[in-house]
Amino acid sequence: MSPVNLLDFDLDGLAAYCEGLGEKRFRAVQLFRWIHQKGAADFTQMSDLAKSLRDKLAGAALIQPLAQISEQASADGTIKWLFDVGNGDAVETVFIPEDDRGTLCVSSQAGCAVGCRFCSTGHQGFSRNLSTGEIIAQLWFAEHHLRQRLKLGVGERAISNVVMMGMGEPLQNYTALVPALRTMLDDHGYGLSRRRVTVSTSGVVPMIDRLRDDCPVALAVSLHAPTDGLRDQLVPLNRKYPLAELMQSCRSYLAAAPRDFITFEYCMLDGVNDAPEQARQLIALVAGPRAAERVPCKFNLIPFNPFPASGLKRSPRDRVLAFAKVLQEAGIVTTIRKTRGDDIDAACGQLAGEVQDRTNAQKRMTRPVIRIEPSTQELP
Ligand code: SAH
Ligand code: SF4
Question: Given 92, 134, 169, 265, which residue is catalytic?
Fold first, then answer.
């Protein structure tokens, strides 16, 4: 029997596993702390763990790191790692340091099946879901590697924020995602605040509802268009979960969310979704059908990061500013995301890893590129 990867467990899962070995819960807590708080990869290091438990674990279990293929460091301090997850698939993880925080951008899938037109991961197609262990191993590695590299003192943390904005659609890998989130939040694990763990989704409505009930963390919704006609083209998942349903689900998420707003991400595509009229349509969208109660939200405008196969262009700066102004004048807090790490292709939407496409997305994506007038909102 192949050894069990202990990174696959949240604390309850590890307690259940230890119980199966005839061990009490406090032993699981000790083990969990060794793994996640101290970064131990080897049972012999775990000095205060009963020898009898260490003996039981040896051979039966392991702490399985990801195989690192490469590391690239950007001039702005951003670091990108590429990890081999087997069978020709590789995923990327990005560390983004800022003055007051360290953010890790984590991947949830090898590739992505949603197939957004402006996303490099989407263009590559989908290979498979990552396991809980493969998701949490990205944080486990980055936190403990960076503590040494940045020479942090005892009790200092390298990573204060996690964003599920790497490769993949996290809410299409729900079963593996939730134990990974719980480990990030657990005081015996990484102890991150719910407000500092963000799930970013293209809008898998039923799973937003489940996340609200199971493990509410901060939510970012990738909107990118104010109408169903345009969003159907840019984010194909919209055909299944249209905007009205998505807005409803955002409203209901807020009842349990750790923040009192949803972040809407909006990738600015030149001549496609960046007209002032479209900003006004967004205001109407978040206002709801009777303009009764606006979805509490912030907008984060993302300058499109081009990649060759997309055929799309970044909106000019003045157009982005004009778009932001319309939203701001309606009282919606709107920020423009600073692009980080683009010199090493680590910026949003540039993460491509290496994916064995098992869905033929690349063929589907070779349709002619869209340029539309806001008034028509239909793509060829
Ligand atoms: N699948 C999830 C999370 C990963 S994508 C989602 O779609 O939300 C993370 C963010 O990067 C999303 O907001 C996505 O829309 C944005 N993005 C994708 N491609 C991009 C590109 N080429 N330029 C800028 N942002 C992009
Ligand atoms: Fe998938 Fe998100 Fe990229 Fe869309 S933007 S293809 S959902 S990773």
Answer: 92
